[in-house]
Amino acid sequence: MSDFCASLWPEEPTPENLQNCGECGLDKHGTRMVWGEGNPEAPIIVLLDNPESRENRENRPFVCGTRQTLQQAAYQAGLKADDLYVTYILKRKPVRAYEKEQTRQVCMGHLKQQLLSKQPQIILCLGNIAVQSFFQDPEKDVKSLRGKMHNVHGYQTTVAYHPLAVRRRPNLWPLFVRDWELAADHYFKQGSFG
C-alpha cells in the first residue's frame, strides 16, 4: 500500500452550454464546476456525490484523499487509469446549506445526459448519496447493496463505500477493494481489456 502514488487525472471540460449553469443554485457557492476526470471514453464510470477540492490554498493542483483512496483501490483491483472516468451527482462542491432534493434532481438531469452520451459498460456508485441519487430511492444504502451487480436504468451498476468513509474507518478497506474487484471482474469477463 505504501508504494502507491496517486496521480492527477485530466479533467474533461464542462460542455459549453452548461459552464454557467445556475439552475441548481450551487453556482452561488463560489466553487467551480467539475464535469468529470479520467478517460471520457472509459468503460467504467465511477460516480461520487460531488467533487472534492482540486487545488490547495495556493491554487496549485493536488490529489485529494478521496482520489488517492479511489485510485489505490482501482489499481489494486487491476484497473488502469484509462479504464475509468469519475463524475459526480453534483458538479460543484457545496460549501454551505442548500436545497438537497431540488439540487440533486436538477443535477441528475445533467448526469443522465452524460451517461447517454458515454454509454458506460459499468457504473460504480461510491457512498450512500451517490447510491440513493442514482438508484432514485432514499432508502437504499451501500451496506445492503454492495457485493453484487444491479441493473439500474439499463446500466450494470455496483456500489462501494465512499473513499472518505474508508479513510476514516480503515476496517472498510478490504470491503472497498473487494467491491472494486467485483467491478473489474465483471468488466474483464465482458472481454474488454482496453
TrEMBL record:
GO biological processes: DNA repair
The organism's place on the tree of life at top rank: Bacteria
InterPro entries for the chain: UDG_Type-4/5 (IPR051536), Uracil-DNA_glycosylase-like (IPR005122), Uracil-DNA_glycosylase-like_sf (IPR036895)
Gene3D superfamilies xrefs: Uracil-DNA glycosylase-like domain (3.40.470.10)
Keyword Lipid biosynthesis recorded: no
Pfam families, per the entry: UDG
Keyword list, A-Z: 4Fe-4S, DNA damage, DNA repair, Hydrolase, Iron, Iron-sulfur, Metal-binding
Residue ranges constituting the Uracil-DNA glycosylase-like domain according to the UniProt record: 35-181
UniProt GO molecular function: 4 iron, 4 sulfur cluster binding; deaminated base DNA N-glycosylase activity; metal ion binding
Presence of keyword Phosphoprotein: no
Protein name, per record: DNA polymerase
Organism: Cytobacillus oceanisediminis
